[in-house]
Amino acid sequence: MAGTKTLTIIKPGAVSHEYIGPILNKINEAGFHISAMRLFMLNRQQAGNFYQVHAEKPFYNSLIEFMTSGPVVVAILEKENAVIEYRRRIGHTDPSKAEPGTIRKMFAESMERNAVHGSDSDENAEIECDFFFSKSERFSIFDKHHF
Ligand code: ATP
Ligand code: MG
Fold first, then answer.
1. Residue 144 belongs to some domain of the structure
2. For residue 146, how far is its CA from the centre of ligand 2 (angstroms)?
3. Residue 142, in any domain of the structure
4. pLDDT for res 112
5. How far apart are the C-alpha atoms of 22 and 103, rounded to whole Å?
6. What is the structure's pLDDT at 146?
7. What total number of domains does the chain contain?
8. Domain ranges, residue 108
9. CA–CA separation, 55 vs 72, rounded Å?
């Protein structure tokens, strides 16, 4: 069965352009529930750990510089089939190839400064959610105690 949660990061470029509100609006319009959220600056260790799979790529150092250059919003989003649904809504990694109406098409500045992150598998969503949020910081829509 497909998972019900994904992790997003609103990246520093989008935060500095005051796109937090418009991006969260798109997320809500798309039917996602926000079950955890925090505004803070990633340190180099967190950013390096998060993007460890890209450590050998030529863009890695620049990506870590960018991701630690200003505050980010990290959030857990819930919906049926969350990973696939959210990646469809954010669009292609390269904003010039993203579909009209997608978050990256609307808010990205470049391939690197591409507005948001979205988990790429249910397995990675679990790992990424656990990386940023403890159980007591989560308010799941699927938990009747909360809503
Ligand atoms: P993300 O993991 O941030 O959701 P993605 O899964 O669409 O993005 P990845 O291949 O995982 O894309 O790349 C991670 C991030 O690294 C991209 O979102 C982008 O910020 C940056 N990146 C990827 N490829 C390039 C590139 N060729 N040049 C510059 N930056 C890149
Ligand atoms: Mg990725």
1. no
2. 31
3. no
4. 97
5. 9
6. 77
7. 1
8. 5-137
9. 21
Whether residue 61 has its Cβ less than 6 Å from ligand 1: no
- Tell whether ligand 1 has an atom less than 6 A from the beta carbon of residue 117: yes
Q: Whole-model pTM above 0.85?
A: yes
pLDDT at residue number 60: 98
Q: 109 lies in a domain? A: yes
Residue 100 lies in a domain: yes
Beta bridge partners of 116: 10
Q: Tell me, what's the pLDDT at 109?
A: 98
95 lines ligand 1 (CB under 6 A): no
Whose Cα sits closest to atom 1 in ligand 1?
A: 117
pLDDT given for residue 5 in this prediction: 98
Distance 28 CA to ligand 1 centre (A): 24
Ligand 1 near 12 CB (within 6 A): no
Ligand nearest to the CA of 98: 1
Calculate how far, in angstroms, residue 117's C-alpha sits from the geometric centre of ligand 1: 8
Q: Residue 114 belongs to a domain with what CATH number?
A: 3.30.70.141
Q: What does pLDDT average to in each consecutive run of 10 residues of the chain (147 residues)?
A: 94 98 98 98 97 97 98 98 98 97 98 98 98 97 84
